[in-house]
Design brief:
Pdz3 Domain, alpha+beta, 80 residues
Amino acid sequence: MNGSPAAEGGLRGDRGFAAGALLGGGDVILEVDGEPIRGAGDLAAAIAEGEMGENLTFTVVQDSEREEIEIELAPPPDGA
């Protein structure tokens, strides 16, 4: 997620695995532009419906707090 529009906007992904253990989760996405996100398919659909340059509002749980983060849709960075 580093260098991605999501990371640039302030969303945090999981930190991955080390020695077979999850290092820690990232943000939990609850809504995009007020529409509930129940799984990866909902998230993909919400992003696909947007247009490049459009801002989407992500409602997330970040550090145990409910936050709204605005992210501008942009192509993924090279190599992603």
